[in-house]
Amino acid sequence: MTDLSALPPGSGLRGATIPVLRERGQREVFCGLTGIVWLHRKMQDAFFLVVGSRTCAHLIQSAAGVMIFSEPRFGTAILGDRDLAGIADANDELDRLCVQLLERRPDIGTLFLVGSCPSEVIKLDLAKAAERLSAQLLPRVRVVSYSGSGIETTFTQGEDSALGALVPLMPRSEARQLLVVGCIADVVEDQFRRVFDQLGIGPVSFFPARRAGDLPSVGPNTDLLLAQPFVGNTARALEALGARVLEAPYPFGAEGTTEWFAAAARAWGVDNVQFQDVTRPLEDRARKAVSRHVARLSGKSLFLMPDSQLEIPIARFLNRELGMRLIEVGTPHLDRRLMAAELPLLPDDVALSEGQDVERQLDRLRGAAPDLVLCGLGLANPLEAEGFATKWSIELVFSPVHGYEQAGDLAELFARPLDRRERLRV
Q: Which are the contacts of 77, defined by CB distance < 8 A and separation ≥ 6?
């Protein structure tokens, strides 16, 4: 059980010295536009308008699984040949389209203009477009912009860019408060809020909120607790406004969730007895749910390809709570500061890689012959054809996997491919 008098788990030196294989070659990742899929579900008054190509439109439509007759809160302003050639004025067309959209959808309170590779190639200034449209449409609609281009990023960084675009608009406050940063499912937010209330920690706000227009305040007395490991730029922008990041593992599994709450409890001076009374039953229930999958996963080897930036905390959970053997933990981008509490919890013999040279990494994977591979969609089917069991990493972002109540579900996501493989053998 966690003792609040102990130092945070990230206080050791190993996290700063663990060797990292840095690779800079061909990558297999989605672009930041994919973040729209979970962001539009979270922020119920927001609309995400991608300014891009037909390929961008097909990507978002496919990733979201939305049927053509539905009314999603995202769309694509498709750049045609005349736009790309500079024959048509793309800004005039964009203004006309936005006004038309808002007339059709009066429920929109915040409109995100999302840049893509094509819009950035033709140097379409969406920041100025957002400023121009906001001046025209405020106070009814706020227009902001961010880049979802995948030229140099991975898909979860789209959320970081979207939240970062909202930081300058957040009201300032001197009040003591806790701000949870990172998009989480509503059911998880409700669970976390109940625990904070029982611990006497508050007021607590979540960023993003369920309505994009309900921006939380921030200031020098704001403590930040990161719910996602890919919001580094947003965290730094909030720190520039005086907020302080609380170092903690991420709330995946029983152990990670308890340590996550413990970081807030230490900062807010919660009594150790009260902390144990609140968290122990929840942690015990989570461990019991996880234990149902130990027999399937314990001792099995795992290779994590870089895709979502969730790889390190997920590897920690699978190793420490389910007994899986880690061969290589790959991550698209390693922010040592955001991983300061996670890295010391990895086993000493794990290989850690940052970036990707996909052919070299596949060679290492084939040589290791792991029991299970965590990877992106583009690699899953080819690896399955070669006989490997795979788990899609994007499912970890689309599914509620944070917190105590979801710990068993998170474990089951990894047990399921091995169970399926066993059934197919029979």
A: 49, 50, 51, 52, 93, 94, 97
State how far the Cα of 74 lies from the Cα of 124, in Å rounded to an integer: 20
> What is the spatial distance between Cα 182 and Cα 260, in angstroms, rounded to a whole number?
14
Is residue 169 within 8 Å of 215, Cβ to Cβ? Answer: yes
Burial class (CB in 10 A: 0-12, 13-18, 19+), 255: buried
**56-71 residue pLDDT tens:** 888 888 777 654 556 7
- What is the rounded distance in angstroms from the CA atom of residue 304 to the CA atom of residue 424? 23
Cβ-contact 367, 386 below 8 angstroms? no
User: Which residue ranges form the domains of the chain, and what is each CATH number?
Assistant: 15-27+289-423 (3.40.50.1980), 32-153 (3.40.50.1980), 177-278 (3.40.50.1980)
Average pLDDT rounded to a whole number, residues 5-15: 48
What's the pLDDT score for residue 205? 98
Alpha-carbon distances, residue 160 vs 33, 155, 186, 309 (angstroms): 11, 10, 19, 12
pLDDT digits (tens, 9 = 90+) for 237-258: 999 999 999 999 999 999 999 9
Max CA-CA distance within the chain? 70
Residue 141 corresponds to which tokens in the numbers above?
């609609």
